[in-house]
Write a structure and sequence with these properties.
Blueprint (H helix, E strand, L loop, with lengths): L1 E7 L6 E6 L3 E4 L5 H10 L9 E3 L5 H4 L2 H8 L3 E3 L1 H6 L12 E3 L6 E3 L2 E7 L8 E7 L2 E6 L7 H7 L4 E5 L4 H6 L4 H8 L7 H11 L6 E5 L8 H15 L7 E4 L9 E2 L1
Parallel strand pairs: 3-4, 4-5, 5-6, 10-11, 11-12, 12-13
Antiparallel strand pairs: 1-2, 1-14, 2-3, 7-8, 8-9, 9-10
Helix pairs in contact: 8-9
């Protein structure tokens, strides 16, 4: 068994579950501890069985309950040193005895999972995505991406499943009530990934081993799940490369997604 579930995804909070028969990890913990523990029970997991929390970057929608979870349940924390130092200590007081440091592009293991962190362009200190492997299968987590570059592509090409950001639709963002500086941040090279960018990336990766995608971190104000889905499907149809049995899903904001078998 090698499974993935998005417990929460969006600017209000992000938390992802990856599990095998013997290992369970969370990637980020950007919702309250209560909501995360409740969501875990809804997908037949338990916070007591979580072996680690991996942190992609220090923004609050990815670390909100890090202090509570690490202290109350003594869960090991995995992060790079720059991200760890950027966490506001006046707001997030985590259990420092549980910290494990990793370096970008260096593999490490948690139980029967092998994790490969890779750099992503985002306005954080040292943000990263993850390739997570179990036996001969690999999945990727790649959100909060300002733009796609060759390094990201080279990592995503190894995966049969990807959680990929599709944060905003440019035409909606342009007309949104957001202030100009925020629109520039979101659409800038260190902001977030648009529907079109996600679609183009998926169309490229379809040439490889990609079997399943979940679009994540959708903006509540500047996107619609149906629009993100249709943009990707239209791009695949344009290139005439939709593989048989290809699976495309949308991560929901406030509740667990469907469980993906990798």
């Amino acid at each position: 068994m090698f499974r993935f579930c998005s417990l929460f995804s969006g600017s209000s909070g992000n938390c992802l579950l990856v599990k095998t028969d013997t290992t369970q990890i969370l990637v980020d913990c950007g919702e309250s501890a209560k909501k995360i523990t409740t969501a875990l029970t809804e997908v037949e997991s338990n916070i007591e069985n979580i072996d680690a929390i991996l942190i992609t970057h220090e923004h609050i929608d990815h670390i909100k309950s890090l202090g509570t979870l690490s202290k109350k349940y003594n869960i090991p924390i995995y992060a790079n040193i720059e991200t760890l130092n950027a966490i506001p200590k006046d707001k997030i007081q985590y259990n420092q005895e549980t910290v494990h440091l990793f370096n970008i592009d260096n593999d490490f293991s948690i139980g029967d999972l092998t994790i490969h962190p890779f750099s992503i362009p985002h306005d954080a200190t040292n943000p990263c995505g993850f390739n997570i492997s179990h036996k001969d299968k690999t999945m990727s987590i790649a959100t909060d991406i300002g733009h796609i570059n060759p390094h990201i592509i080279s990592n995503l090409e190894k995966s049969s499943f990807i959680l990929l950001e599709a944060n905003y639709e440019p035409s909606i963002l342009k007309c949104s009530p957001y202030p100009y500086y925020l629109k520039e941040r979101i659409s800038g090279p260190y902001g977030h990934l648009s529907n079109e960018n996600a679609a183009e990336t998926i169309a490229h990766l379809q040439k490889n081993n990609l079997k399943s995608v979940m679009l994540g971190h959708l903006s509540k104000e500047n996107n619609f799940p149906e629009l993100a889905y249709q943009t990707v499907m239209d791009e695949l149809l344009k290139h005439q490369n939709i593989q048989e049995n290809f699976d495309l899903n949308i991560a929901t904001r406030f509740q667990p997604s469907k469980i993906i078998d990798i």
